[in-house]
Each structure stands twice: as structure tokens, then as C-alpha cells.
Amino acid sequence: MGTYSQNEQWGCIATNSPPIFGSDPSTQFTLHNTAAGEITYDGNGNAHSEGRNGLNTSDGFADIGTYSCDYTYVVNDDLTFSYSGLCDVLSIFAPPGTPPAILTNQKWYGKLSADTNTLLLERHDAEAEGTSSDGIVNDINERVCGKTQQQVKISSGDPGQPTDPGSPADPGPPANPGRP
């Protein structure tokens, strides 16, 4: 349980012509995304993150956005860790009333440090994710990504209390699924 700073990098192959990934090379492009924010784990298997991201693509598109994600997570006895969920992303340049893009099939896998202060996560598989640019989940542009992420604890589950391992403000590693 607690709040972690979050920094992630993505490299993806994507298509802007749903739903057939890889069928027409003229609709495919690469993208790079970098994001930074905070993620809070509630100790009951739910997490919420918010922050800002930057995106650029091989077809010349660039953007800056804000994101908000909701996940479910599991920490195993060996401290391996996974979470999955959906994210809403909205360009800071979007006109008022623009629906957010919805990022689907957001999955991460990693390892939690023994002191629960650090998480290292990745996603390097061939499972397609999706992005809905019009806020409708059934109109998805697919992509396959390699991702890395680092998280460092910045506060314990007690709001306003700094993390200090061994202090009364930081109860240490919580029980499954309540870690981190």
C-alpha cells in the first residue's frame, strides 16, 4: 500500500486502421511514448495512476497528454508482480468536449523489492493492446509494444506521511494482495 512515482518508456508498432493489425503496411507506424506520474496502491488489489505523457510517431504525429488509469494488481509470495487495466488519455491541445483516448489491455509484469520501496516492470510480449481515439472502446487501433517502467515509493499508505522504512509511519510489507 502506498504511492509511488512512476516513469515509463514504450516503443510500439501500431496500425491506424482497425481492426486488422498487420494487413496493410501503409497504415502501420512506430510510436514512442514516455510518461511520468504517480500510482497509488490501496492494499486491496486496486491501483490508480495519473500523470503526463509525451508521444511521437514515425508518421510525424507528436502530442502531450494527461493520463488517468485504473488497475487491478496481484503480488505473489516471491514478490513477482502484475497489474492490468484501462487508461484514459487526453491531449493538452484537445478542444473542450473532446473525449479521451482509451488505452485497453494495459498489462505490466515485474518484481517488487523486498523492502517494497521499488518496483521494476516490463511488457515485452506480442499481445495486442489498443487505443480508441474517439472514446469508444469498440473502435480500437491495435499496437504491439515493448515497455519498461520504474516505480519508487514516495509515501506510505497513510496520507501525508513520508516513507521511512522501519518508522511507525511505514508499516513495511503488507500482506497479499495488499503489497506494495
Mean pLDDT: 79
CATH class membership = Mainly Beta
Strand content: over 45%
Q: Which structural class should the secondary elements be placed in?
A: mainly beta
Question: From the coordinates shown, what is the CATH architecture?
Answer: Beta Barrel
Count of discrete domains? 1
Number of helices: 0
Measured distance between first and last alpha carbons: 5 Å
Radius of gyration: 17 Å
Please provide the ordered H/E string of secondary-structure elements: EEEEEEEEE
> Mind summarizing the main beta sheet?
9 strands, antiparallel
Task: Please provide the count of β strands.
Answer: 9
Global outline: globular
Low-confidence stretches: 159-178
CATH topology: Porin
Helix content: under 10%
Commentary on this structure:
β8 and β9 (141-155) form a beta hairpin. This protein has one domain: Porin. Mean pLDDT is 79; it is low at 159-178. Strands 1, 2, 3, 4, 5, 6, 7, 8 and 9 form a nine-stranded antiparallel beta sheet that branches. It is mainly β. It has strands at 2-15, 28-41, 46-57, 62-75, 80-91, 101-112, 118-124, 129-132, 141-155. Helix content is 0%, strand content 58%. The chain contains no helices and nine strands.
